[in-house]
Specification:
- Helix content is 6%, strand content 41%.
- It is globular, with a radius of gyration of 22 Å.
- The strands form 6 sheets. Strands 2, 3, 4, 6, 9, 11, 14 and 16 form an 8-stranded antiparallel β-sheet that branches. Strands 1, 5, 10, 12, 13 and 15 form a 6-stranded mixed β-sheet that branches.
- The protein is mostly beta strands and 377 residues long.
- The protein has 2 domains: 186 residues, Galactose-binding domain-like (Jelly Rolls, Sandwich), CATH 2.60.120.260; 190 residues, Jelly Rolls (Sandwich).
- It is found in: Secreted, Cell wall.
- InterPro entries: DGR2-like_dom, Galactose-bd-like_sf, Pectin_Meth_Modulator.
- It holds the Pfam family DUF642.
- Its main location: secreted.
- It comes from Eleusine coracana subsp. coracana.
């Protein structure tokens, strides 16, 4: 009863203030888990009929308010956190205005699940600024059917609108992905140093991981100019991802977080580094087992300036890692450091869930520079 009164009061505030922006802090967005329900007078069954019926959100198109355990044909719908979520029909969207700091970087994360088995995607955007991306959701990387996705942006002003949109055109207009647990995190991109030319080589800076994200957070492929939710790193792929994992739910070689290569050769973890042609460099990194039931042995390959090394991870038990190293001579002023898993791996629980080796604690240092005579030549 107290919760209902609080939500009703919040709904009045939202309707009166229309789309007034709320200052955000790291963690869930206002009503980001959708536990504060819509006004019952603006509902038709599970369909939400009022644009501002869901507190703190504006909706467009066919949006359903889903309860965990709700029946859809022969399927029982579940939600990843709490008891409620929303489902987006064809061309439907939800959006929320946020107060941010102009020029700062932010990562947004949310959980999503398919409901009808078809190939689906979600389009995320932030305006003003025109930053937008399509997140592929056709591959499921967790055994429970839910995945958490991350996406990042640079704030173009102090008030922005975040939109999650289902651009699908399915036979059933109500058939679309379920969305829940929307959260934000301020990013502070690390800089390269003499002790490590790689930015964020320990992967400690990344998207929000809450206690509810027991399956990690997916970092999607991105173009060269996109803002990365994993500062310093690019994800090069057509439609696959890497998984950002934490030590609370996975085995991590060092520190709090690492990256699991869950998509085999279809995805590469890449960073471009300033180098001096003719100088020698040493790349070191940890390749490990995330302790998520992945079959071993697993392999990781590292590439830089024509050099390559392969590290095999043998894990007789949960966790464990092996150190790898690659020495190379730079041939250009910019050198790409690339990590990739050459094989495809699945959990040994029979679920068919993709997994892979983790990368952590990566460093790159210059070990020798060309002599003056060589520079003159």
């Amino acid at each position: 009863m107290v919760m209902d009164k609080r939500c009703a009061a919040l709904l009045v505030v939202v309707c009166v203030a229309a789309r007034a922006a709320l200052a955000v802090s790291d963690g869930p967005l206002q009503n980001g888990n959708f536990e504060c329900p819509p006004d019952p007078n603006q509902m038709n069954g599970s369909a939400v009929t009022g644009q501002y019926a869901i507190p703190n959100w504006k909706i467009c198109g066919y949006v359903e308010y889903i309860q965990s355990g709700q029946q859809q044909g022969d399927i029982v719908l579940t939600v990843p956190e709490g008891a409620h979520a929303v489902r987006l029909g064809n061309e439907a969207s939800i959006e929320q205005q946020m107060g941010v700091t102009m020029g700062m970087y932010y990562s947004l994360s949310f959980s999503a699940a398919r409901t009808c088995g078809q190939s689906q995607k979600l389009r995320v955007s932030v305006n003003p600024g025109g930053q937008t991306s399509d997140l592929p959701t056709q591959t499921v990387y967790s055994s429970n059917g839910w995945d958490t996705y991350s996406w990042a942006f640079k704030a173009a002003c102090n008030t922005v609108t975040f939109v999650i949109h289902n651009p699908g055109q399915e036979d059933d207009p109500a058939c679309g992905p379920i969305v829940d647990s929307v959260a934000i995190k301020t990013l502070y991109p690390p800089q390269a140093t003499q002790n490590n030319l790689l930015k964020n080589g320990n992967f400690e800076e990344g998207p929000q991981i809450s206690q509810d994200y027991q399956w990690g957070v997916l970092v999607p492929p991105m173009d060269e100019d996109d803002v990365s939710p994993l500062p310093g790193w690019m994800i090069k792929s057509f439609s696959k991802v890497v998984k950002y994992v934490d030590s609370a739910h996975f085995a991590v070689p060092q520190g709090r977080c690492a990256v699991e290569l869950v998509s085999g050769v279809e995805t590469a973890l890449v960073q471009e580094v300033d180098t001096v042609p003719g100088s020698s460099y040493r790349l070191e990194f940890s390749a490990g087992d995330a302790a998520d039931g992945c079959d071993s042995p697993m392999e990781v390959q590292a590439f830089a300036a024509g050099g390559r090394t392969t590290v095999t991870v043998f894990s007789p038990g949960p966790g464990g890692y092996t150190r790898g190293a690659l020495e190379f001579t730079a041939t250009d002023s910019r050198t790409r450091v690339v990590f990739v898993s050459p094989g495809y791996y699945m959990r040994n629980d029979g679920s068919g869930t993709l997994c892979g080796p983790v990368i952590d604690d990566a460093s790159l240092v210059c070990v020798s520079k060309p002599t003056a005579r060589r520079l003159l030549l």
